[in-house]
């Protein structure tokens, strides 16, 4: 049983380190958004996705060990494990608490980043609409110019008097 709990502790420590890296990447994304550095932002998004994939792999290992612990101890959750009998469970609970705290920080920062990106996108959309409107106005001006600037525009009118 202690070996399974040790596996849970080790995987939770690895997950905490990875989730901390994700938090740092998320902070870097904020800086990219604020500086309108889209190339570096896309690079950070890829890095973040790689870390999330690693976390998913760790979660699978954690979950299988967690299921074994639950079945062997016949419990519903980690909180039910007796810390007197298994003192190293305190480390696991601390790791899980730290993971949850960092995950909440990431979620809060992601929410702010999403709002900032949406604002920037709305600005770009507005600029595109203005350019489109200016383009339409320019086309109208070009049409008017062409109407007044035809090749027969420079000839004088001819008046014929048929009353002789």
The gist of it:
With 164 residues, this protein is mainly alpha-helical. The chain has 3 helices and no strands.
Instruction: Please trace the helix and strand order, writing H or E for each element.
Output: HHH
Regions with little confidence, pLDDT below 50 for 5+ residues = none
Q: How many helical elements?
A: 3
Residue-averaged pLDDT: 86
Number of strands: 0
Distance between the termini: 125 Å
Largest sheet: none
Helix content: over 70%
Over all CA atoms, what is the radius of gyration? Answer: 33 Å
How much of the sequence is in beta strands?
under 5%
Task: Walk me through what this model shows.
With 164 residues, this protein is an all-alpha fold. It is built from 3 helices and no strands. Helix 1 packs parallel to helix 3. The protein is rod-shaped and about 125 Å long.
Short key terms for the protein model shown above:
164 residues, mainly alpha
Topology of this structure?
Layout: H1 2-34, H2 38-73, H3 89-148
